[in-house]
Design a protein that fits this description.
Distance between the termini: 45 Å
Shape: globular
Strand content: 25-35%
CATH architecture: Sandwich
Largest sheet: 7 strands, antiparallel
CATH class: Mainly Beta
Radius of gyration: 19 Å
Oligomer: single chain
Number of helices: 3
Structural class: alpha+beta
């Protein structure tokens, strides 16, 4: 059954029967291992596929990538405090990244930092987590609360109300125990599924999954982390609790206004009609 949370909310483009998202060539990236070194080469290859790292400034560029490693976030938005899903869809540097998170659960949590005097790697929620989870980039990690589902939407970094598409998304996962529970579903405009990717397992290790598109075809993604949400009583047999670290994504590109899209489509149709 299709995840009901995947129903598109940011944009829907369907004009004159034309496809909302043109077919795009996709390159998948996947790795798993015991520590950051085990996935580093694949993460680097994915970064290279998207292009140079852009500064976290409120401007929209035409190429390159943005990323989040969570580690500069303040204690005010770290556990035990909730993390706002729109924290990186903001109007000023260094939070201007053009990405926003939502969940059918109760919200999000960002683990504490040892310098804050709080328990690291969500040990404040469950003491076993400090040993089970590790960070790819020290030392904060990220998770939804009350659900194991996260939706990722993109916006222009120059205008945080303008929906955008991008040419790739990659995520680092911690402690994927089971082989088929953690996935990324990539969607284009109109909600068409572009790719469903299963994340490799690495018990108490790290995994990386990502997809690069040859055009800015990705409108949003649905991430399913394990089969149970983070909490104090998750130790039953068969439970797989998974959290996330770095997010790497292509520069968000503004979606054209519907009127512009309609004009382009009408022009393309007229050209087709003029052909002999």
């Amino acid at each position: 059954m299709k995840n009901p949370f995947a129903v598109p909310t940011t944009a829907c483009v369907a004009v004159l029967g034309l496809s909302a998202t043109p077919a795009a060539a996709i390159t998948e990236f996947s790795a798993a291992g015991a520590d950051p070194a085990a996935i580093q080469a694949t993460v680097d290859a994915f970064r290279a596929a998207l292009g140079d790292l852009n500064a976290p400034a409120p401007v929209e560029l035409t190429d390159g990538r943005r990323q989040i490693n969570w580690d500069a976030a303040p204690a005010a938005v770290s556990s035990p405090n909730p993390f706002p899903g729109d924290f990186f869809n903001f109007t000023a540097a260094p939070r201007a990244r053009g990405i926003e998170f939502s969940t059918p659960g109760t919200g999000f949590a960002l683990s504490g930092d040892v310098d804050d005097g709080t328990a690291i790697r969500f040990a404040d929620i469950n003491p076993t987590y400090e040993a089970e989870f590790q960070a790819f980039s020290e030392e904060r990690i990220f998770t939804p609360r009350g659900s194991n589902v996260t939706r990722v939407d993109f916006f222009s970094a120059a205008d945080q109300t303008t929906p955008a598409t991008t040419d790739g998304l990659g995520v680092v996962f911690a402690d994927v125990d089971l082989p088929d529970t953690t996935t990324i579903d990539y969607y284009g405009l109109g909600g068409n599924l572009l790719l469903s990717q299963t994340v490799q397992a690495a018990d108490e290790g790290l995994s990386f999954a990502g997809a690069a598109f040859d055009t800015a075809a990705l409108a949003y993604a649905i991430i399913t982390t394990g089969n149970f949400d983070i909490g104090p009583t998750d130790g039953a047999f068969g439970y797989d609790v998974v959290v996330m670290d770095d997010f790497i994504f292509g520069e968000p590109i503004s979606i054209p206004e519907p009127s512009t899209a309609a004009l382009l489509s009408l022009g393309a149709l007229a050209m087709l009609r003029r052909r002999p």
